[in-house]
Amino acid sequence: MIGLRRPLLGALLLASGSALAGGCQQFDTGHGPVDLPGCRLDGGHVVLESSALGALDYDTDGLAVVLAGDGYHLVTRQGRSLPVPTYDNGPDALQEGRVRGRVGKRLGFFDARLQPAFATTFDFAWPYEDGRARVCNGCRPGPPDDSGDGHVPVVGGEWFWIDRQGQRLPD
């Protein structure tokens, strides 16, 4: 059984702001969510006007975080966006040049330009560490554990490791 954090902080932040009303917010670590005029959610992706793109706080990889709909989205300076899972109560981050992104109800891996790293998607995936990622197909969220810290186990399915090109590694 693998532990997975539920998006507790993200859900609280979104419920407290206007992102649920179809707008977007950027997350300011010093002040919490801040409304982002010129941003909207369309078909599961954020669409930003140039004024909104210019207002975002980009990290050293050129990515910014936007809250929209029911989750986090990474955005490039060019306006490409990717819905990402919540990890430890925040947006998934680029690790070893890869970030997990939502592809329908599955997860895929993307590069720093938010382009697919490879075509394969998975029912669940952990971030890359030491050049490989643990993934599964056929797994599903289980019942929340009793710890009260928001962990939901991922149960069942077939678990295996993949390399940076998405190829299955020997056990």
UniProtKB/TrEMBL annotation:
<keyword id="KW-0732">Signal</keyword>
<feature type="signal peptide">
    <location>
        <begin position="1"/>
        <end position="21"/>
    </location>
</feature>
<protein>
    <submittedName>
        <fullName>WG repeat-containing protein</fullName>
    </submittedName>
</protein>
